[in-house]
């Protein structure tokens, strides 16, 4: 700064301007040392040669001008040298101390704010303005105007450390006059601080997970103080029971870096060096697999920084849920079963939520009418465990602890035995879980089916019978499908020509019931209710009596069921056989006038006469008919025709008559019967 001193000098009536200049140097310091307080300036004039100065008292003038001192200083809060963090506010204070009088000219302070800081809006005081500088700098200009009185003038404003700040931020001021001590500040940036954590989001509404559920994990990294100087690597380790899915969305507080993480494998996610302070998240999914039990764990570890809140996540796994049921498969096309049929039962167990923590035991109880067969095929949704059940006895089947969620089946067979009636029941009960749909199976048993028939056995070698022959009749009843629910009564009616004899042997396919029939009268035979399926026979005899003719018939009728084959048996009766002869009461010799008694004998066998037997007796020469003396069953007419009527039962029949030897007799008398 320079100053000027003007003095007006008058020499002997002339006016002359003399300009005397003096350089005033002002030194600016925080506490300037001043050697003198004024500048003294003396001007002396002398008359030219040959000129007499009439008044020498006014040839010298002295002027004293005060010295103005300006001292500039700068300070900051935090103080220079202290570390600052991104987002932190630095308050700068510029101080100008004016002493020695009013300012002869403006004092202009030029303050340069380094990159990495942003001038806080509204923080500039009056007298200051800002403008952009080169290379990201900001220039703040503050002015103390000329003529400002002696005193101290301060300018205070603030900046915020930018997220992009690196290493340090600085600020330096230069005044346009004087010198400045402590006019630069420097703040090193605090090293980056890193925290990270992890959260788990379960399917909506759940507080525990099941196999197949998808958990969304979110890794959150918070960078503060300053940008990363080396990459942050978050390594997330999935525990047993979790299968990595896919990396999902990312969020970032840095609009210039919307997807800051780079993730590889299952799972390592990296924030690169240079990542500015802010909060960054990355999400990924993991599916709960069938190895999950109790809880699934997932831990994240960073290569720098510290875990905040939670980095080792334990998600409860739902307890295993078990349902089971039972189905029955009947023989093809059937809706009911019969004795001897094989039913295939299938037990199905469904494990969900998580693997079994204790064995599942399914106990299947066969009801009356069922006989256990054998364990058959198994199915499994777990390819590593194709035959998961272990079955013992008749029947207990076990799925072991550790069986993973899925559906498992085991089949076995049972045969309907002869105790089945109405329905056969089979119930399964589990030692855990619940029955789903049906666990108590009732399979209808077909109503008993009854057929019966009758056969006749003739005496050996015969195809027809004669009076007196004994026929053995056999009644056969076959019970099928199921046991009798009511007694079967077979009523056998003997036709004409048969006389009941006696009940004979019985046979039975039921070893527990060798003589199943109860027979009364002539003839009613009963199989009681409860008779199991099988074939049962009862035999009895009947004798062909003399009323038999043509055929003898015998019919059986049941009070239930149907006749099978033949229930009305007709046995041929042998045609009647007739023999006859004739005898005389004397062999001779006879004389004229002698009376001879002739006897005709007819024998009917096999069966009764179906037509009249007429014996015609022709008397030869020398005989004269007398009279019938004993006709018996015969009816005789003339001389002589004797008739046994149709219907005459087998037997021997005689008729006697007399004839007198007349005078025509010679040599012998002959008599022929036809």
Polypeptide structure, described:
The chain is mainly β and 674 residues long. The strands form twelve sheets. Strands 9-10-7-12-13 form a five-stranded antiparallel sheet, with no helix packed on it. The radius of gyration is 71 Å and the shape is rod-shaped. The N and C termini lie far apart (196 Å).
Structural Rg: 71 Å
What would you call the structural class? mainly beta
Residues in helix, %: under 10%
Number of strands: 51
Content of β-strand: over 45%
Overall body shape: rod-shaped
Task: Detail the poorly predicted runs.
Answer: 1-37
Please summarize what this structure is.
The chain has 674 residues and is mostly beta strands. Helices cover 0% and strands 54% of the residues. It is built from no helices and 51 strands.
List the helices and strands and how they pair.
Elements: E1 5-11, E2 14-20, E3 38-44, E4 60-66, E5 69-77, E6 89-99, E7 107-113, E8 117-119, E9 128-132, E10 138-144, E11 151-161, E12 168-175, E13 184-188, E14 193-201, E15 214-224, E16 232-238, E17 242-252, E18 262-264, E19 268-271, E20 278-288, E21 295-302, E22 306-307, E23 312-316, E24 321-329, E25 342-352, E26 360-366, E27 370-380, E28 390-392, E29 396-399, E30 406-416, E31 423-430, E32 434-435, E33 440-444, E34 449-457, E35 470-480, E36 488-494, E37 498-508, E38 518-520, E39 524-527, E40 534-544, E41 551-558, E42 562-563, E43 568-572, E44 577-584, E45 595-605, E46 613-619, E47 623-630, E48 635-637, E49 641-644, E50 651-661, E51 671-673
Parallel strand pairs: 14-22, 24-32, 34-42
Antiparallel strand pairs: 1-2, 3-4, 5-6, 6-11, 7-10, 7-12, 8-11, 9-10, 12-13, 14-15, 15-20, 16-19, 16-21, 17-20, 18-19, 21-23, 24-25, 25-30, 26-29, 26-31, 27-30, 28-29, 31-33, 34-35, 35-40, 36-39, 36-41, 37-40, 38-39, 41-43, 44-45, 45-50, 46-49, 46-51, 47-50, 48-49
